[in-house]
């Protein structure tokens, strides 16, 4: 895609064409060495939203009209207004631009809508001509009402410097050079993850406790079985000894009856 670029040779305006730079939006996990794309996070996690265009010397960029939508397209929340200023600093602050105005980043904490975990971010990227003074209002200098001081100054001085027709052409060019970018991720509640963690810990503790109780019961059962076995052995030995004693006593009684002298009073002559 190409766009019209206006340059000046002396006092004569010359219209040329230049390829439109590509633009991208990505959301990264903050406080990491490498840029890790955020896909599934929880509320309060620190994230970085980065918007960039191809590096070149013709165009700069200005991020405007950012908002966040739910995954069901039921609701949305404005984040950055048409001046490029934040709507609510507590939700998202101002973008920080690189010196060549080809990249802008802003740090924020993950947030979500109460009825869904999917959120989508959308921003409008306006391209500006660096050499034509079209990027003088970037980065925005915002007041407490969300208005860009630099944009007002640019409007006040542009009519004095430029011819009316030339200003209209340049404004039309800037209006046409805009790109919408999107990015999304999933944001989970802290309570859900904590409950899931607590449930898993509880299940693990129950399993461990059951395992410990089973081992204890097993040890007690082994001890009882060993005791019973010892008692059974003692009773068996006692029974064997008692039986041997009875046999020995019976044999002694029989010998005293038949081993003594035989007498029969019926045949006694006296």
Automatic annotation (TrEMBL):
Keyword 4Fe-4S among record annotations: no
Protein name: ZP domain-containing protein
Keywords attached to this entry: Membrane, Signal, Transmembrane, Transmembrane helix
Provenance organism: Medioppia subpectinata
UniProt-listed InterPro entries: CUT_C, Cuticlin, ZP-C_dom, ZP_dom
Signal peptide (UniProt feature, chain positions): none
Annotated TM spans: 218-241
Record flagged with keyword Signal: yes
UniProt lineage: Eukaryota, Metazoa, Ecdysozoa, Arthropoda, Chelicerata
Domain ZP span(s) in chain numbering: 1-142
């Amino acid at each position: 895609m190409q766009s019209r670029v206006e340059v000046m040779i002396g006092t004569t305006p010359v219209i040329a064409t230049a390829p439109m730079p590509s633009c991208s939006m990505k959301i990264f996990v903050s406080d990491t060495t490498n840029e890790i794309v955020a896909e599934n996070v929880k509320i309060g996690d620190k994230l970085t939203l980065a918007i960039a265009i191809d590096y070149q010397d013709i165009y700069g960029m200005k991020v405007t009209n950012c908002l966040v939508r739910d995954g069901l397209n039921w609701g949305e929340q404005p984040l950055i207004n048409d001046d490029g200023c934040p709507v609510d600093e507590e939700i998202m602050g101002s973008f920080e631009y690189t010196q060549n105005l080809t990249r802008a980043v802003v740090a924020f904490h993950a947030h979500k809508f109460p009825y869904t975990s999917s959120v989508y971010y959308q921003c409008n990227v306006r391209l500006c001509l660096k050499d034509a003074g079209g990027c003088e209002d970037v980065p925005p200098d915002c007041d407490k009402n969300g208005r860009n001081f630099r944009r007002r100054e640019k409007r006040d001085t542009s009519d004095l410097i430029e011819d009316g027709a030339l200003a209209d052409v340049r404004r039309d060019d800037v209006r046409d050079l805009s790109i919408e970018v999107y990015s999304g991720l999933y944001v989970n509640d802290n309570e859900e993850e904590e409950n899931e963690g607590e449930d898993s810990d509880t299940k693990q503790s129950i399993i461990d406790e059951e395992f410990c109780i089973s081992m204890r019961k097993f040890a007690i059962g082994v001890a009882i079985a060993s005791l019973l076995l010892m008692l059974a052995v003692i009773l068996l030995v006692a029974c064997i000894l008692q039986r041997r004693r009875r046999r020995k006593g019976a044999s002694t009684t029989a010998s005293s009856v038949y081993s003594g002298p035989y007498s029969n009073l019926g045949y006694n002559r006296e």
